[in-house]
Amino acid sequence: MSDFTRRDVIKTTIGAAAVGAGGGLLLPRQAMAQQAPNLPIEKGATLRLLRWSQFVQGDIDTWTANTKKFTEKTGVEVRIDREAWPDIAPKASVAANVGSGPDIILDFFDVPHLFADKLVDLTDIATYIGNKYGGWFPVCERYAKQGNQWIALPLGAAGACMVYRKSHVEAAGFKEFPKDMDGFLQLCKALHAKGTPAGFALGNAVGDGSWTYWLIWAFGGKIVDDNNKVVINSPETIKALEYAKELYPTFAPGTLGWLDPNNNKAFLDGQISLTNNGISVYYAAKNSQDPKIKAMADDIYHANFPIGPVGRPTELHLFSQAYVFKYSKYPNAAKAYLQFMWEKEQYEPWQEASIGYITHPLKDYENNKVWSSDPKSLPYRDTVKNMLWHGYSGTLGPASAAALNDYIVNNMVAQAASGSKTPKEAAEEAEKRLLRIYKS
Predict the structure, then answer these.
(1) Phi, psi at 299, each rounded to 5°
(2) Is 328:46 a contact under the CB 8 Å cutoff?
(3) Could you say which of 333, 352, 381 is where a domain stops?
């Protein structure tokens, strides 16, 4: 990363209310419900934000435009650096250790729990925004709070749904996408028989490999219990792995080595008719310069993950949140920026421009027209509402992060599915790996 270029800006010290009209920090009609925090911006404040690279172009275009609006209202210049999303966490760890770097980082999953003591308390703005917009979905508190303190501000999640070719599903004998595990298995078998198979990543894929967590949870399996006791080797997990073993032969060849980009490419290349992904596959098809791929967009549909024996959604999605380091010279400016960007006047247009790629963390944003303007987007609306946290049902921290980063669940499902280990053997190996992590 290049050094941060600082520019002295002459401006009046202001609080959140001063940014008000049209900017979203506090409007008179909103003050009745919840008083915005008083955030006097430091004189000469400038900010540096490190965030993940866009998955859809509308995201970065509108994020940049909203940032410019913030600068125009406050005089605070904000530099935006972008990196591939797997590279954010290592850079954040370096910044935390050396005590310098970006003021704000937009990251994924439970990374802020790894250095919570080095982060600015965001409870005031999280409380204000939550109260104003109908409350945070439950999983947000799991990811963004440590104890009673908000150490991060949830942006939402790059939600994953079942992405499928409608004509191929219908040709396989299904008028609608199955809502239960048995129907899903039968669909995959029928698609394979038709030569239009499904394909799900079984390699070390963080985002697109999240379907393996859904599978284990759907049958009642867990990594750990509420007290962080390792319970992965359970009858429920074994049932899930036996299901995976029956499902795997219906997949296209090569899925054991698939990483996050592979299923996107295979789908758009016509090699598979069903996978799990964000709305980016549909977005790519709609905006493709290749007439063949562009025509495919009309046949692409989405569905929420089927419900397993537990009787409720058990999804995992790529959860993103922002945090501010204590080493920042301008913590009030950083908090004011986040508050501004999360307000409806900025958040909803950004979400629309991203065609719903990031599902909102706040209940009131369910009404965003992005979910009604194109019916194909609707299944993504509830992904944050439906999701669990990857350390379910224990707490988040170094152990849950290590388990995710070591691909323990992904590997266990891949071993059982492919037959390299029996379901029992795969669960036992996962148990041993988890015990080494959770005892430390």
Answers:
(1) -100, 0
(2) no
(3) 381
Over 70: is that where the pLDDT of 421 sits?
A: yes
Q: Both 184 and 294 in a single domain?
A: yes
User: Among candidates 169, 166, 212, which has minimal Cα distance to 192?
Assistant: 169
Q: For residue 185, what pLDDT is reported?
A: 98
pLDDT 10s digits, 112-148: 999 999 999 999 999 999 999 999 999 999 999 999 9
Q: How many domains does the chain have?
A: 2
For residues 251 and 118, what is the distance between their CA atoms, to the nearest angstrom? 45
Query: Would you give the end-to-end CA distance of the chain in angstroms?
Result: 34
Residues 324, 368, single domain; the answer is yes
Complete DSSP assignment for 365-421: GGG-THHHHSGGGGGGGGHHHHB--TTTTS--SHHHHHHHHTTHHHHHHHHHHHTSS
33/308 Cα distance (integer angstroms): 40
| Domain with 252 in it | 161-316+388-438
